[in-house]
Amino acid sequence: MTIESTLAQFIDAHHVEQIEFLRQIVRVPSDTPPGNNNPPAEKAAELLTAKGYAVERFAVPEQRVRDYGMQSITNLIVRQKFGAGTGPTIALNAHGDVVPPGEGWSFDPYGGEIKDGRMYARGVAVSKSDIASFTYALAALKAAETAGAQLNGNVELHLTYDEEFGGLLGPGYLLEQKATKPDYVIGASFSYAIVTAHNGCLQFEVTVHGTATHGSMPETGHDALQAANAILNAIYGKLPDLGKTRSKVAGINTPTMLVGQIVGGTNTNVVPGKVVMKMDRRMIPEENPAEVEAQVRAMIEGAVAGRTGIRVEIKRILLANALKPLPGHEKLVAALQKHGERIMGEPIPAIGVPLYTDARLYGEAGIPVVLYGAGPRTVPESNAKRADENLLLEDLRKATQVVACAVAELLA
Question: What is the CA radius of gyration of the chain?
């Protein structure tokens, strides 16, 4: 038997077990916010330990987590040596934190219910599915070595719990603590394309200060909402120009900018004295984050310049750099494309995507990283971050085979 057939045979034989593993993972809430993510990490550690893995826990200090805006984070690493262990170290990273389920579900968002070959649950596609796919790809590689396959190197599972807040206390923390230094990384994604690049993101909290006063005498105060409206007009007035800037990376279009949250005022009959807005500026890989931040700050300050009694504070709350291909990533792409086309039955393109991920942090550390895992062709197909998020379980089975075969080739 070839190593590919050995891996496929193991994964097929353990598919039902893998489905139940995934169901146990999605049944533990890991909504972020609020970000109480020790319990889901402990469940994952329990399941991995039961499979015979030695699980290393990396708990982020409580005060640091709370200062960050979350409640608890424990990241996990599993390390598996193959052969002499002198070959490359390949990390498989998936995040176990998810956005809250929201309204409109037809299924229990923490139930892991199955209908028509699909499992429904929050996080089942992004990215708890790849906790399952990477775990069973590693199990298949272990079984193949036991059966006589000649492999040499190391595989690490990185399960992190901070992607929805940007990843600085997930992969960022593991790298900062020098807990890992892999040669290559495969991060969580979907099955029909390999992501080699993605957008960057800047997020700001903009606080507009005025002076509250009685609504019957607005001239005695300074309306923070009117000033905030001028900022909104400046932001959305910039969109036509942003739409003219196009990325050269396939799959990525133009920069974007939006205000996602506005809070302000004290009562219906009171001139608002304070308004807080949270905004998001997505950057294509070709943009320089420092230049973009300076432009956004100047635009906001310019929108309220000269307004008596108005003061604006601009606080950066996130800087996620774009993911760009690094030398060496082509080995990952070639192996995943080769086995992906064979197993999925169609060509697997290498593309960019307009979102951002915590995988960028490996790239910032100089480690070649691509994204590939279990899921459909597009995010909307899976209802990721919407009601009734789901995963076609056949994609889980096939993606596990692709990852196992690609890693085996790199370790051969």
Answer: 23
Residue 157 and residue 76: Cα distance in Å, rounded?
8
CB 92 within 8 A of CB 362: no
Phi, psi angles (nearest 5°) of residue 39: -60, -45
CA 300/CA 314 separation, integer angstroms: 8
| Planar angle of CA 333, 409, 20, nearest 5 degrees | 85
The two tokens of residue 138 are: 């590693």
What dihedral angle (degrees, nearest 10) is formed by the CA atoms of 326, 405, 339, 76? Answer: -50
- Alpha-carbon distance of 254 to 82, in angstroms, equals 43
Which residue's structure tokens are 């399960």? 159
Nearest CA to 395 out of 82, 141, 18 is that of: 18
> Sheet harboring 113-115: ordered strands across?
113-115, 118-120, 390-392
Are residues 368 and 332 in contact, defined by beta-carbon separation less than 8 angstroms? Answer: yes
Per-residue pLDDT tens listing for the chain (412 residues): 899 999 999 999 999 999 999 999 999 999 999 999 999 999 999 999 999 999 999 999 999 999 999 999 999 999 999 999 999 999 999 999 999 999 999 999 999 999 999 999 999 999 999 999 999 999 999 999 999 999 999 999 999 999 999 999 999 999 999 999 999 999 999 999 999 999 999 999 999 999 999 999 999 999 999 999 999 999 999 999 999 999 999 999 999 999 999 999 999 999 999 999 999 999 999 999 999 999 999 999 999 999 999 999 999 999 999 999 999 999 999 999 999 999 999 999 999 999 999 999 999 999 999 999 999 999 899 999 999 999 999 999 999 999 999 999 999 9
What count of Cα atoms within 13 Å lies in the side-chain half-sphere of residue 324?
15
Contact 126, 191 (CB under 8 A): no
Nearest in space to 325 (alpha carbons), one of 403, 249, 219: 249
Q: Report how far residue 108's alpha carbon sits from residue 106's, in angstroms, rounded to the nearest whole number.
A: 7
